[in-house]
Write a structure and sequence with these properties.
By secondary structure, the protein is α+β, with helices and mostly antiparallel strands. It has one domain: Chalcone isomerase. It is built from 4 helices and 10 strands, in the order αββββαββββββαα.
């Protein structure tokens, strides 16, 4: 009887510790480094969660699209898990935009827009520690160089009026344009243990 009680107690303690550590992980894990108010260029982001590639080509915007390139968007895996469990963005979220030019407009499959060359890299971060005065605690960065040279090693945040206003007025979820990313919509608040792509629902 005593052994059974001790085993049950050990299991209970283990569950509590595991639960607490999982909750702590959401806040303790960071995928970015900021020094002297500049973001170091993130690495290994292609192994994060890929959420989509929007495109607003010049051809459909009178030749003057503000963002005419493909944007491959990735989110750090802990923030994706938090999004699934809570339906909101954790403090510490980072999203990466990998900019790719529009290349050929014809392929064996037909006419369309096909990726060309890598031309830039951008990031957005939610951090109350580093950006307490920014709307929603979001800040935006670019490692792209004007003449298309190698990416910069660090980036200072854009000024508030350069990015936040558009995100505040048009983004669906806390400054993030989730309405354009079905991967994020399918994952929102489904539960931490659910894997949306494995379900039949679309």
């Amino acid at each position: 009887m005593k052994n059974t009680f001790l085993i049950s107690l050990a299991i209970l303690i283990g569950l509590v510790v595991t639960s607490c550590s999982q909750k702590a992980d959401y806040n303790d894990v960071s995928y970015f480094t900021i020094e002297n108010n500049e973001l170091k260029r993130p690495v290994d982001y292609r192994s994060w969660v890929y959420v989509g590639t929007p495109l607003t080509p010049n051809d459909m915007n009178n030749g003057k699209a503000p963002f005419p390139e493909f944007h491959n968007v990735y989110i750090d895996p802990v923030s994706y898990d938090y999004w699934k469990a809570n339906g909101s963005w954790r403090d510490g979220t980072i999203l990466i935009k990998e900019l790719v030019s529009v290349g050929s407009k014809a392929a064996v499959s037909g006419n369309g827009y096909f990726m060309g060359d890598f031309i830039g890299l951008e990031a957005t971060i939610k951090s109350s520690e580093h950006f307490p005065d920014e709307p929603g605690n979001w800040a935006y960065f670019s490692f792209t160089t004007p003449a298309g040279e190698d990416l910069k090693a660090t980036s200072a945040p854009f000024k508030t009026n350069q990015c936040n206003a558009c995100h505040a007025s048009a983004a669906q979820d806390d400054f993030v344009f989730t309405q354009h990313y079905p991967v994020l919509n399918a994952a929102k608040n489904v539960g931490g243990d659910v894997i949306p792509e494995n379900t039949a629902k679309r």
